[in-house]
Amino acid sequence: MRIRRSRAVWKMFTSLLVSSMMTSAVVSADEPVRRPADQPPRARRVLYNFDGDSCLSNKAGSKGPVPVTVEDVKQLIEEVAFDGSRVDTVLVCINAQVMYYPTKVGTMRGLLSTPEERAKWPASEKQRFENLKAFFDAGVDPYAVMLADAKRRGCEALLSFRMNDDHGDDFLRTQFLVDHPDWRLGTEKYRGKGAMDFGRDEVRDYTIRLIEEAVRRYDSDGIELDFNRFPTFFKEDSTDERVAKMNSLVERVRRMLDEVGRERGRRLLLSVRPPSNFGRTPPTPATSRQLGCDVPAWVKQGWVDFVAVSEFLFERGDLPMGLWKQAITTVPVYGGIECTKGGGKKNLSADEYRNAAAQLIKAGADGVYLSGSQ
Fold first, then answer.
1. For the chain, which residues score pLDDT lower than 50?
2. Is residue 176 part of a domain?
3. Element (H, E) at 306
4. Which residues pair with 19 in a beta bridge?
5. What is the pLDDT of residues 227-279, one digit of tens each?
6. Predicted confidence (pLDDT) per residue in 288-298, tens digit
7. How far apart, in whole angstroms, are the C-alpha atoms of residue 215 and residue 257?
8. CA distance 147 to 352
9. Residue 350 maps to a domain
10. How many domains, the chain?
């Protein structure tokens, strides 16, 4: 479900946020609101992640799935990066096991569903599929449009890559797992049916190829590796074995980004969203490492440019920012705010967003990270 926020809500929210950050000396009082796109990135205050999914089946003012145009896609960016907004960084997600664009490495979303399965899709999925088909048939990539418009407005523009997904829906089916069903983590929906086993060399190699394809396809400022949702990556292996395998993967991504960056004449950023604990307990550096993601070590190796810590799906207000700031001292660490508290309530109110942001900044976060969907 895509989050709808009015400009008035955004202005009130970001005004309080910047005041809080100025108090904590993160942003200087004379820093300009916008920076030219060709200057080095400044301190980030608000980072906004578009899920790449629901944002391509809805538009401003719609009450359900509708066709969208290029202007509607540009409006997505204008909604969060309007003049006076404190959004510095826009992230655009382009996958969930499947890729959201025509891919030569993986599988595009929905292409392996049967006609019978497509007939059972919810209206949102049917409309999303039709919208993307219309865009790509016309030679238009809506994600490239979003990235370009974010940069035109002076924002950093990064891809966001979900490292695993365990929905198990037919429209997220990939040829990779059809060909290798034993490389999944399990056989039940939400219990490994859609998720890959990163203990296998083949899975990590495949993931690297998907990431490189996305990086080379899009003119972005870098990519985020999103380990946050469905934070299960290994069937077996000891913690040290998991860490060694994930370390190798992240190092390879960094090397690839450096190679592409040299070709483009600039450094490409690598950011990381550490794994959550499915909302059962707050994510910490220690629990992240147990899952194979030794994020502080990645930072110490110089592989990662910034980190965004988030809860899982629901806003609980208990992110242990102090632990993350103690463990990571050389790059910014941002605190995430989820869009709902659960219990049937869809969106946080403006006051709840402002209060959550103020608490994160007070706890030491270098800025806040917002996600545009559940």
1. 1-12, 15-16, 18-39, 41, 374
2. yes
3. strand 306-309
4. none
5. 998 999 999 999 999 999 999 999 999 999 999 999 999 999 999 999 999 99
6. 999 999 999 99
7. 8
8. 29
9. no
10. 1
